[in-house]
Design a protein that fits this description.
Strand content: under 5%
Distance between the termini: 32 Å
Keywords: Membrane, Transmembrane, Transmembrane helix
Number of domains: 3
Number of strands: 5
Subcellular location: Membrane
Largest sheet: 3 strands, antiparallel
Helix content: 55-70%
Main location: membrane
Protein name: ARMD3 protein
Number of helices: 36
InterPro entries: ARM-type_fold, ARMD3-like, ARMH3_C
Structural class: mainly alpha
């Protein structure tokens, strides 16, 4: 007997003796693509159609193959198909519901492909017709809401979320997707929250639900009142917020795990041996080979939660109660194809075995620690556009956290100590830190470590000025809290001071190149004012009097850098040029640093001469400093502990518009046919019925 092959909706006999036979569903699609009403000859046409397994590829391809005029000719049949899909969602027979959901996906995407150049209203008219749009979309959203909230099949809920993601991301710029007006009017916000608050639903659908919510929040967010923004900002239900935090933590943790696995695999391989033989000149190239695709969608969700909902701040520091409790999967779920990380949720077996795996060297963990580790990876390499966007978003999230009073309270809490193993960029002049020897410290120390790490590792030709500004602002905001609340943090402040001085040195060394692209005096002023903050208020928040002495020691030791900076800004501020005003601000800001240098340097030289010492030790310099504070005169500088609060709409709107566009394209690309074609789902329902 000749074997039968199935391809593109055709049934072929291997003997090729007869013409290819079309599947019945394909023949029915062909009837829809005529100008005649398909139910005229067959009154049961629509009833039969939704019992047939959907051929997504054929249906979507057929729509894309038509030109605009041809599509308009069959508009009535397309409208009819769309309406019957919505009716089928209310059917009791689950196979009809599955087929209706998949058909809607194909319709929405196929019609949009033909209407890329036209307005969203034309897409609505083509799909459903203006006269019936409001009622049909209301029925569609109500049906999806019911399916998501029902006790029914988890696989069916998954398909509902896929359809919603398909609907939201059908245009690159989601704010131009007029269909979303109906999603705003007929809210599914409560259904998303219900998924996040239920452990079972969250494991199966949490990732898609969180990404969907993040995208909906960004629909016309600056132009009109977005109900999803309003509702997200007032959620105070603890299980729901914790559920959202768990989903985000799991996705970021999965990214961290994949990166660590690749790093270990890379280090144990041939390249590692080669590097050890020839030195570390290939380290940068080696590092690029272990990069893992970033996850902007989940990062956007974290940002919206932190930025909009003050109650979510508490979730950042909470150890998750479900961690390590789950030992066996609850139920089998449909498999999804392997795609790059950042586009699909973590595999279900990872989630069910432990919703957030703990690091071997960390006793407890939380969302903030996971986020800091993620940030330390993506901020290593900012040359790639996606990683640059991810790095920027990480710093924006940290900015929001650094401004929040409650967040600062737990960041600086001495009773909440953690061992946070941040990833450090391989560099020739430093050894790899031993992970096991990390001390347990308040979380703010890890934030400061991350900022210092960024400052030290990104002084390069393609200078990321914007990221440096954000980095210094975060440090400043943390210092403002410490000064205000008199928190004496036991931190290795010298590492920060050294990094800041080296940054100033880099700006001066590359003055000509950098000034062609950036106003480097803005950054220089911020760095100098950080030192002014330590000089003026350091006695209120530095851990010990000797820490304050060490600050003076570092300034004196590195005085040549401050002298050079003063010479540079003085030169530019006395010339009539574009940099006159910003340079003169730095000149004024250096007054106390110069006073310290000019006061102590002669004293140190005198001490050396009297004691016949050519090179003073650190202890000897510190002794001179301590005995000469009384005669030092400093000027009181205003506004050092003040800062402008973060504002998204006025400063970051363009960044978020482009970021959401990129996420929308990525999500749509990964809603592939094979993710929508649910073989297991149909088998499951066949057995039920």
């Amino acid at each position: 007997m000749a074997q039968t092959e199935k391809k593109g909706g055709l049934l072929r006999k291997s003997s090729a003796s007869k013409k290819p036979l079309k599947e019945k569903v394909v023949l029915m699609y062909d009837e829809i693509f005529t100008t005649e009403d398909p139910s005229k000859c067959n009154p049961r046409f629509w009833e039969e159609l939704f019992l047939m397994k959907v051929n997504l590829e054929y249906l979507e391809g057929k729509l894309e193959a038509l030109d605009g005029e041809e599509l308009m000719k069959i508009k009535d049949n397309i409208n009819c198909l769309f309406q019957h899909c919505i009716q089928a969602l209310g059917e009791e027979h689950p196979i009809r519901v599955v087929n209706a959901l998949q058909t809607l996906c194909a319709l929405i995407r196929g019609v949009h492909q033909k209407n890329k150049s036209t307005s969203g209203f034309d897409i609505i008219n083509m799909l459903v017709g203006f006269d019936k749009a409001e009622l049909c979309m209301k029925n569609l959203m109500e049906s999806l809401d019911s399916l998501l909230c029902a006790e029914g099949s988890e696989s069916l809920k998954s398909l509902c979320l896929k359809l919603l993601l398909c609907l939201v991301t059908v245009t690159d710029n989601i704010s131009q997707n007029t269909i979303l007006e109906y999603v705003m009017i007929n809210s599914i916000f409560e259904a998303i929250l219900q998924i996040l608050s239920s452990p079972l639903s969250r494991r199966e659908h949490g990732y898609d639900a969180v990404v969907l919510l993040a995208l909906l929040v960004n629909y016309r967010k600056y132009e009109s009142v977005n109900p999803y923004i309003v509702k997200l900002s007032i959620v105070d239900d603890e299980p729901t917020l914790n559920g959202m935090g768990l989903v985000i933590a799991q996705a970021l943790s999965e990214y961290n795990r994949q990166y660590k696995d690749k790093e270990e695999e890379h280090q144990s391989g041939f390249f590692s041996a080669l590097t050890s033989m020839v030195g570390s000149m290939f380290i940068a190239d080696a590092d690029e080979k272990i990069s893992v695709q970033t996850n902007e969608a989940i990062l956007l969700a974290l940002y919206e939660a932190v930025h909009l909902n003050r109650n979510f701040i508490t979730v950042l520091a909470q150890s998750h109660p479900e961690m390590g409790l789950m030992t066996t999967p609850i139920s089998p779920v449909p498999t999804t194809p392997v795609t790059p990380l950042g586009t699909t949720p973590p595999s279900s077996d990872v989630i069910s075995s432990a919703e957030l795996p703990l690091d071997a060297d960390v006793q407890t963990s939380n969302l903030l620690i996971t986020f800091l580790k993620y940030s330390s990876i993506v901020m290593q390499d900012t040359k790639d556009e996606h990683r640059l966007h991810s790095g920027k978003l990480c710093l924006i999230i940290l900015t929001c956290i650094a401004e929040d009073q409650y967040a600062n309270a737990f960041l600086h809490d001495d009773n909440m100590n953690f061992r946070v193993n941040l990833h450090r960029m391989p560099m020739r002049h430093r050894k790899k830190a031993a992970d096991k020897n990390l001390p347990c410290r308040p979380l703010v120390c890890a934030v400061l470590d991350l900022m210092v790490e960024f400052i030290v590792t990104h002084m390069m030709k393609e200078f990321p000025m914007d990221l440096y500004v954000r980095c210094i602002q975060i440090v400043h905001k943390l210092l403002c809290y410490q000064k205000k609340c008199r928190v004496r943090l036991h931190y290795t402040w010298r590492e920060l001071w050294s990094a800041l001085i080296n940054l100033l040195k880099f700006l001066m060394s590359n003055e000509t190149v950098l000034l062609a692209k950036h106003n480097i005096f803005t950054l220089a002023l911020m760095v100098v004012n950080l030192f002014n903050m330590f000089i003026t208020y350091g006695d209120t928040f530095l851990p010990t009097p000797s820490s304050y002495d060490e600050l003076y020691y570092e300034i004196i030791r590195m005085h040549q850098n401050f002298d050079n900076l003063y010479s540079m800004v003085l030169r530019l501020s006395t010339n009539a040029g574009q940099w006159k005003e910003p340079a003169s601000k730095v000149t004024h800001a250096l007054v106390n640093i110069r006073a310290i240098i000019n006061h102590f340097n002669p004293k140190i030289e005198s001490y050396a001469a009297v004691n016949h010492i050519s090179q003073l030790s650190e202890d000897q310099v510190l002794e001179v400093v301590r005995s000469n504070y009384d005669t030092l005169t400093l000027k009181l500088q205003d506004g050092l502990d003040q800062y402008e609060r973060y504002s998204e709409q006025h400063k970051e709107a363009a960044f978020f518009k482009e970021l959401v566009r990129s996420i929308s394209i990525n999500v749509r690309k990964n809603l592939a046919f094979n993710t929508l074609s649910q073989e297991l789902l149909l088998k499951e329902f066949s057995m039920i019925s």
